[in-house]
Specification:
mainly alpha; two-stranded antiparallel sheet; 3% strand
């Protein structure tokens, strides 16, 4: 695993531990889901249902694949070595990427405006400066928008263990804006 991917894993664990108790459990995913759906107030019910299903699948996949001792929680030790395994998590990540990026496009024009992108990423728990650095790395158009497809691919790249120098690396540490 590349160093950049290892840093992304550590950040993802801290974000998934939404209640801050040091482990990931189903309550964390319920909390994060609520935050994201609230930030997506302009999205339609189908898109909200899709992100709820994606978060639910994400938790189920993590619990099935990583909860080595069956205690209903995932420790950082259980999480670290396996979460970036495309064979185990690829379809789950794809579903999540499509659902989250769709929330950023409530008017269905294929474009995501910066304010909604920032709101959704803040709801997940990313730092605002890093969110803006990521959005800028996606090369927004003159009206400060990115495509839904660009964001979906960016999410999938974020979880790839062999990727480095990707826009998502800006979420790990603030970049000069």
């Amino acid at each position: 695993m590349r160093t950049e991917a290892a840093r992304r894993v550590e950040l993802v664990f801290s974000l998934f531990d939404a209640n801050g108790n040091g482990v990931i459990d189903s309550d964390d995913f319920d909390l994060m889901t609520s935050r994201v759906v609230e930030a997506a107030s302009a999205s339609d019910d189908a898109d909200k249902a899709a992100i709820r299903a994606a978060f639910r699948r994400y938790w189920t996949t993590l619990a099935t694949e990583l909860d080595a001792n069956g205690d209903g929680v995932i420790t950082v030790e259980e999480f670290r070595p396996f979460v970036l395994d495309p064979g185990r998590f690829g379809p789950t990540i794809t579903e999540f990427a499509q659902a989250l990026s769709a929330l950023g496009d409530p008017d269905k024009d294929g474009l995501i405006e910066r304010p909604l992108f920032v709101s959704l990423m803040t709801a997940i728990g990313f730092e605002e400066a890093n969110i803006h650095a990521l959005f800028d790395a996606f090369a927004p158009d003159a009206e400060d928008r990115i495509t839904v497809a660009t964001w979906a691919v960016g999410i999938e790249d974020y979880y790839a263990p062999d990727m480095a120098g990707i826009p998502g690396d800006r979420l790990v540490s603030a970049q000069a804006v």
